[in-house]
Recover the amino acids of this structure.
């Protein structure tokens, strides 16, 4: 739910400007590489539950994009036939300005809540790879996101165990020498060095 501009997204201002000049804007990663489709933290789900029309997180994300009259095409990566069917059905139900003011207020509060949780907008695109030091950046950020979403210590410990079992020591955040090469390539403008530094502590064994 990007409204500000970055290297990859024109933001709301850029979108409106392009439309005013007759340019079509194709929106990529409407679900943030699937991040917005996974089970949300319970505080986020509680906000979604306030909506009059119940929707899945993926539907909220897609409808929010389709809600913009300036958007003619949305590209969403799909890995399974069920996702193709769901996306087509949502596109079929969508139309510009379909979300009510109350819906938009709910979306804004969800966005705030995700930001409070430290949501990392890594889409897993891998453009930052390979890291010259072998750091598995997208994998680490994915585990970091999971830990930030986890609401209880037991769940957090399970994620940390899985991280340590999955990512070899030489490819973990500790191997980063902060050269910055990856940040130049990240279309999401993520502060990868700072995130890895935080991930290192958040994912250390208990
Ligand atoms: S800043 Fe760290 S993670 Fe990024 S390319 Fe350099 S060593 Fe790899
Ligand atoms: S380039 Fe950025 S968004 Fe893409 S995988 Fe790397 S950190 Fe994530």
């Amino acid at each position: 739910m990007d409204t500000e501009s970055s290297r990859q997204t024109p933001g709301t201002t850029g979108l409106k400007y392009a439309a005013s000049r007759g340019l079509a804007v194709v929106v990529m990663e409407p679900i943030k590489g699937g991040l917005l489709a996974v089970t949300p933290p319970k505080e986020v789900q509680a906000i979604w539950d306030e909506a009059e029309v119940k929707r899945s997180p993926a539907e909220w994300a897609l409808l929010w994009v389709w809600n913009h009259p300036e958007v003619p095409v949305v590209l969403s990566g799909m890995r399974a036939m069920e996702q193709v069917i769901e996306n087509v059905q949502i596109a079929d139900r969508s139309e510009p300005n379909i979300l009510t003011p109350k819906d938009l207020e709910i979306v804004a509060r969800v966005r705030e809540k995700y930001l409070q949780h430290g949501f990392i907008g890594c889409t897993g695109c891998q453009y930052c790879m390979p890291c010259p030091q072998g750091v598995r950046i997208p994998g680490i950020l994915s585990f970091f996101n999971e830990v930030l979403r986890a609401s209880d210590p037991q769940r957090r410990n399970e994620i940390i165990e899985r991280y340590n079992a999955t990512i070899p020591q030489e490819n973990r955040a500790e191997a980063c020498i902060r050269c910055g090469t990856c940040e130049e390539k990240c279309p999401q403008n993520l502060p990868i060095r700072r995130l890895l530094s935080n991930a290192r502590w958040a994912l250390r064994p208990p």
